[in-house]
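Q: I'm writing up a methods section and want to include an example of the input and output format. Could you take the sequence below and give the corresponding predicted structure tokens, formatted cleanly so I can copy it straight into the document?
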Amino acid sequence: MTTRRDFLKRAAAVPAIMMLPTIKWRANYDLHAIAATFCAKDQYPTYDLTRPYVMARHAYATDAMAMCRLLADDADTDPATRRIPTETIDVWERWWTDKGRWFEPPRERLRVDQTGQFCPRCFDHLPDCPTCNGEGERIYGDNYSGASWVGDCKDCRGYGAKLDPSCPDCHGQYFGNFPSVQVVGDKLIAGHQYRRLLRVPGIVFNMGSPARDEPIIWRSDIGLCGLQMPLDPAKVRIA
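A: Here is the clean output for your methods example:
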């Protein structure tokens, strides 16, 4: 369940007409800074999703589980100089729709998934482990024999994060069966991703396709809109 599925490769066979929502924009928000929170923290082997990119007068930010879009006057990002998913607009046009009912997001009420998950409170906030620099592994050695080997960092237990014993949810365990899933309609969103959506001012949801493994659509009154992939319902067991 914690594995990110690259939904850029999972576009549906049934296309939808691309329709931009009517938006009453609020002023005094740094849209680029908010959009940047939807970028990936690390580069993927195929794409560089660590920064927004521009296509056809829109900037996109994605971590392969969610996508955010806003108007942009910048020149298109050159895929020859930066590894970006050239199928982005195709994905957007297949999934985006203004049809259906729009509703305010439900109050956060995380449920426990009975498979191991990263603590949703710690996942986005803990700094890298200073001992292994966030790698989760260290090189160990035997001074007597001169042998060396790579093993899990003992300080972070291989997670790469500086563990926080004061966390009220995981008490420094970081991984286990924690309240980490938000139910929206009949679709499931990872807790840390749901909290990210709630930080978008004036956000509203649309369930989009009724299929449980197809994205939830969202928009806001500050000029941002996007897609959120749900968790695979076959891999989630809610307590």
